[in-house]
């Protein structure tokens, strides 16, 4: 649309980058945190901190889980057993109950200590890492479908910004080794290039595969073309395990678990199990569903075995030998969610995600800086510029502060509070709102400066708050070898340090500005405007 | 961009709006119709054909999006989008035996 393709792409990069960058920052920020989704759920639930590493055999755990459910919820229409892993130490047992006509079934979740097989005591109500996981594609306080469409469009813009960014980046290799701090906008440009180029494969991968996770909402057309009943027909083909099984009137005492599991262990002795689901455990429609663990395989959906609960006979299997298309599609989703990652790779995911956040943040800061530099001393900033500047501070500094608020709320809200989990989330949004209001009042450098200091203080005090409100602290975590919990404290301190360095850097700038400002009264007025 | 600052006329604004519409909506429908056709053309099982086509959809969408901003003539963009969508739809119906 401009004189040359190159200039068109520069224009496009600027505008698709800017238009939804704050939403994108939120998505990247929450998404990056949710690489540690289960770890956060663990941190948020101090009662499970004391659970020792699971020493039980998988077979024993499943048997005990089934026996527990038979005692606790014989009338449930579904039992659900999630086996412990390195990331989730507890044995999860859930049961679902029919609520009568027109009402949704009700789930009750329980957690057992895998070593003692008794329920974990002192659990608190919290959303844990699931809050950030949901936030990064469902947003919050809004219609889920609308939110997902918004997220899709933001991601599409991100992808376009990445592609056009590559096109306009003539010296992609040279810039890798170039960082010129202390040079105003040039330094921001270098930060932008560095964070983009270093983790470029990650950015492209995560954006593309992120869109793929919601692809059937975006493009249901192929399924609608090939199947008469559209997505429903496709899903029935693709997810045989999700087919609904109707209850029967004939009662059954205890399902044929032994026969089913004996057959399974004999034929697939090496297979680790992720979860076991029993449909209609109390009547003749009973079905036993076994989901295999994918471990570090690049697969998303689990291999699946379904046994009859009355005879113990194998009824169907799925994805034991996935086709190339399934490997492609499932692989894309698997590399997006990163469930396959061991701690090392998981940290790499996290660091690349942070690089993505820096890329977006530096991009929107640079836009505002360039426009402001171009202003003549007599001009006042336009509404658009002020809006961008305010949103920049409110989002970039507000989200980390709100996240810290969420962690504090988890530790400090009373354990028996009504709607406790919702109040944790509310704290997150209230802190963010407060930051936004603060930013509206102090829109210049001071807002950055003060918020950086607040962030540094708040993050530094988190390990202290944790030590005072729970039984453990950084020292005991390290002595006991509880590395997940120790990493939390260390990560909090590291975050505080980064914000402290930023605050110090900004403090230097604010003083310089003050000196310049004192010399010319008109510029002072401009600074405040 | 400097040119844009100098001439933020109504005409310019409208042309930007039109381009964004062409890229977002035109690109969307073009992709939707082309993956529908693609799923019919891939010679494999129904599930696999659907999976391959949806995996390609974002690639198609982003190419169209870039192209819309890369091409100079707006008239060309809109007419080729509309015509190709019609063509894709007709071809899909023809293969399905609807015509």
TrEMBL record, chain A:
It comes from the Bacteria. It comes from Pseudoalteromonas luteoviolacea. Keywords: Membrane, Transmembrane, Transmembrane helix. The chain crosses the membrane at residues 12-36, 146-173, 194-219, 347-368, 389-409, 425-443, 450-469, 481-501. Pfam families: PepSY_TM. This is PepSY domain-containing protein.
